[in-house]
From TrEMBL, chain A:
Produces ATP from ADP in the presence of a proton gradient across the membrane. The gamma chain is believed to be important in regulating ATPase activity and the flow of protons through the CF(0) complex. It is found in: Cell membrane; Membrane. Its main location: membrane. This is ATP synthase gamma chain. GO terms for cellular component: plasma membrane; proton-transporting ATP synthase complex. Belongs to the ATPase gamma chain family.
Automatic annotation (TrEMBL), chain B:
Gene3D superfamilies: F0F1 ATP synthase delta/epsilon subunit, N-terminal (2.60.15.10). F-type ATPases have 2 components, CF(1) - the catalytic core - and CF(0) - the membrane proton channel. CF(1) has five subunits: alpha(3), beta(3), gamma(1), delta(1), epsilon(1). CF(0) has three main subunits: a, b and c. It is found in: Cell membrane; Endomembrane system. This is ATP synthase epsilon chain. It is a peripheral membrane protein. Its main location: membrane. Keywords: ATP synthesis, Cell membrane, CF(1), Hydrogen ion transport, Ion transport, Membrane, Transport. Belongs to the ATPase epsilon chain family. Signal peptide: none annotated. InterPro entries: ATP_synth_F1_dsu/esu, ATP_synth_F1_dsu/esu_N, ATPsynth_dsu/esu_N. It comes from Candidatus Defluviicoccus seviourii. Residues 7-85 form the ATP synthase F1 complex delta/epsilon subunit N-terminal domain.
Length: 297, 142
């Protein structure tokens, strides 16, 4: 049996761990609130852009002159996967879930004989893939969401994607990230951003949202307008994914740290019980020794 | 006809401005244009430049610098989607000059074509910003 001193040390160490986890939980909760309101404030822009694009793509669908970002490069040989994770751990299954999904997708794509390339946003994605698919990771961006999701990095990444796409370095680009459902649950989502796909349900909803583009004058014409709109939309899609991922990360961390805090207090309870029992046992033992010593006299 | 219409500037981060306006001047991709209540429905690109809000007598009420974007105009409404929109009075000359310089330097060292294209775009934006500040200071002096 452990000595009293060992138990005391153990209890103290669990207590300080508990302090850390509960502080982390509170920080995550605050960040989560901010992330959620940021996500909400970004929504009008996303909705407007989607409505515009839905209208324009709707009128365009019949033609074959669609820009490459919509029609694709005409091939389906190489895939680029963008993986959005956190830079740090201690957030439950948040990073692991994305990585697992990505691994599944990579093995499917490879069986189909397609080339796969990976860009990681967040260090944990790269760490998770390093052992099996380390060679595929062409780039890792770190600290993108350190101070919350910002539009700047999303725009930079989208510009890089565009130049890569123009240089025909990939045909299809998919983003993997956690969608925020609630603080308790995040859903891993794979969203294809190049070629651009308008989700069917949203397309009809957005098209109803006051956009019969036919009735609009377009300046400076349909082609240039679409050429400007599509890259902007790409940046917005990535930004949206970053926002979702950041909110999910905070939610996941909050839940994980809440659990950890609770586990710590359970553990403290158990250890304290053992400590008290041990102490009592020692007292009893000493008493017995004194009494039996007195009787022997 | 109504004397004002709903004018909104939306950025990815937030709804930057939402107000009733009588007249708005927008730097469109095919030239500046003014929006009055009852304007024909239109979609337009926006180039880096200044958006001016004016009252009925065309006096300038407020100015925003936008770094490109889109405008959607209907007879009742005008929505500007901009990646960045800053009130012009918050931009100082030093900021603008510094940005032009940095963009210029970036352009000088750029070699790959795509880097060059981005750098050129940044430079154009920065120059537009400086021009907007110049214009603002000139008018402010009156």
């Amino acid at each position: 049996m452990a000595s009293l001193k060992d138990l005391r040390v153990r209890i103290n160490s669990v207590k300080s761990t508990q302090k850390i986890t509960s502080a982390m939980k509170m920080i995550a909760a605050t960040k989560l609130r901010r992330a959620q309101s940021a996500a909400e404030e970004g929504r009008p822009y996303a909705r407007k852009m989607e409505a515009m694009l839905a209208g324009m793509v709707g009128t365009l669908a019949s033609r074959e002159t669609a820009p490459k970002l919509i029609s694709g490069s005409g091939e389906d040989r190489s895939h680029l996967l963008i993986i959005i994770t956190a830079d740090r751990g201690l957030c439950g299954g948040f990073n692991g879930n994305v990585v697992r999904e990505v691994k599944k997708r990579i093995s499917v794509l490879r069986q189909e004989g397609k080339a796969v390339k990976v860009i990681c946003v967040g260090r944990k994605g790269r760490d998770g893939l390093r052992r099996e698919y380390g060679g595929l990771v062409s780039e890792t961006l770190e600290n993108v969401t350190r101070a919350g999701a910002q539009f700047g990095p999303a725009r930079d990444l989208s510009r890089r994607l565009l130049t890569m796409f123009e240089a025909r370095e990939f045909d299809v680009c998919t983003v993997f990230y956690n969608t925020f459902k609630s603080a308790m649950s995040q859903v891993v989502t794979a969203k294809q951003i190049i070629p651009f796909e308008l989700p069917a349900a949203e397309a009809s909803a957005a098209a109803e949202g006051a956009l019969a583009v036919g009735s609009y004058e377009l300046e400076p014409g349909e082609g240039p307008l679409l050429d400007a709109l599509l890259p902007a939309n790409l940046a917005m899609q990535i930004f949206g994914a970053l926002l979702e991922s950041f909110a999910s990360e905070q939610g996941a961390r909050m839940t994980a740290m809440d659990n950890a805090t609770r586990n710590a207090s359970d553990m403290i309870g158990r250890l304290t019980l053992t400590y008290n029992r041990t102490r009592q046992a020692i007292i009893t033992k000493e008493l017995i020794e004194i009494i039996s010593g007195a009787e022997a006299v | 006809m109504a004397e004002t219409f709903l004018f909104e500037i939306v950025t990815p981060a937030r709804l930057a401005l939402s107000c009733e306006a009588a007249c708005v001047i927008i730097p469109g991709g095919a030239g500046h244009f003014g929006v009055l209540p009852g304007h024909a429905a239109m979609l337009s690109t926006i180039v880096p430049g200044t958006i001016e809000l004016r009252d009925k007598s065309l006096k300038i009420l407020d100015r925003y610098f936008v770094e490109g974007g889109f405008a959607e105009i209907t007879p009742e409404r005008c929505t500007v989607l901009a990646e960045v929109a800053t009130p012009l009075q918050e931009i100082t000359r030093d900021d603008a000059e510094d940005r032009v310089k940095r963009a210029h330097d970036a352009l000088m060292v750029s070699e790959a074509l795509n880097v060059r294209v981005t750098a050129e775009r940044d430079l154009r934006t920065a120059e537009a910003m400086l021009a907007a500040v110049n214009e603002y200071e000139k008018q402010g002096a009156h």
